[in-house]
């Protein structure tokens, strides 16, 4: 890919948020020779991007998301070379097991729906096949929907690797820096922070659960809610699992790390206090998905939980991310990933970099348009005279 020649006249693209989307965007822009400044109010990967379950999956995606997920998998399959790391992506398979007739029926309807849409990556495996591949599964399993080549990664490692590579290519990261206002000044934008002001032509909003606040500063009224998906990690057990396991019609994300510990999640939420950067664990929710894990793997019903945590994530009304141009020229949004944005990170970073450089994106982003919500609007925005 051709690199641009840096000149004093090139204003840096300002990216707000140093999660995986922000860091990946900084990487792709820096790779192309575009100056970049990333502003992060905490530290790299502090919230959802650094503390999620780490699933790298095409399985179970909303149909609108599948092309973006497939494009992202192209990057995941070369992530070590891309970011100069070792064992960045644990390529295995991802399966959602059916534990009853209702789950099996849901699986059948899901695969039929995908076939009608032209996708063949999810396949049904019957009970005997599944038990052959995962012997410790409950013997009452009906089968499952499986995707070969999906797997998992350590979220903090990948987010940090995108940061490190972007920084090595010239991206500037400023932390902790809080954005206080974004104002139009002639043909440019002035991003004012608690550490000073930056003038830019392009602002990329990757602020996660705080993305709507940043959007409002640019004139876009977008609605998201902050939630706190919970996870636990267990004590170490003998190795028995080389896949990621979920449940059809249920909420479970289950994998075993290389050291034998297991990371278990499942859509249960704690309490998110975005204003204070705090989360609170709800024990009943933890108990729910830990019990589901014990139902899927009976030999783990007495496993010890070592630690529980929750990150703050932004959720949209339709659980699809907001990716695209804002109502004002030079504003680009990429947030609201609703607890399933980690795998999408590389492709989202590429797409946001394309938008920032006025290039055609590889994937159609229309389903993720910031303007798709009936309640979204543009508020009047004052324009400062250029100095």
Task: Furnish the topology, listing elements before pairings.
Blueprint: E1 13-16, H1 20-31, E2 36-39, H2 48-51, E3 55-56, H3 66-76, H4 79-83, E4 90-98, H5 101-116, E5 123-126, H6 127-133, E6 143-152, H7 155-168, E7 172-174, E8 179-185, E9 188-193, E10 196-200, E11 203-205, H8 211-217, E12 220-221, E13 225-234, E14 244-247, E15 253-256, E16 262-273, E17 278-280, H9 283-296, E18 305-310, E19 313-315, E20 322-325, E21 331-335, H10 345-356, E22 377-378, E23 383-384
Parallel strand pairs: 1-2, 1-11, 2-7, 4-14, 8-23, 11-21
Antiparallel strand pairs: 3-6, 4-6, 5-6, 8-9, 9-10, 12-22, 13-16, 13-18, 13-19, 15-16, 16-17, 20-21
Helix pairs in contact: 1-7, 1-10, 3-10
Structural write-up:
With 387 residues, this protein is of the alpha/beta class. It folds into two domains: 13-51 and 156-222 and 317-384, FAD/NAD(P)-binding domain; 91-149 and 225-315, D-Amino Acid Oxidase, Chain A, domain 2 (2-Layer Sandwich), CATH 3.30.9. Helix content is 26%, strand content 29%. The chain contains ten helices and 23 strands. The strands form five sheets. Strands 7-2-1-11-21-20 form a six-stranded mixed beta sheet, sandwiched between helices. Strands 13, 15, 16, 17, 18 and 19 form a six-stranded antiparallel beta sheet that branches. Strands 3, 4, 5, 6 and 14 form a five-stranded mixed beta sheet that branches. A hairpin with a 2-residue loop joins β9 (188-193) and β10 (196-200). α1 (20-31) packs parallel to α7. The model is unreliable at 1-9 and 379-387 (pLDDT under 50).
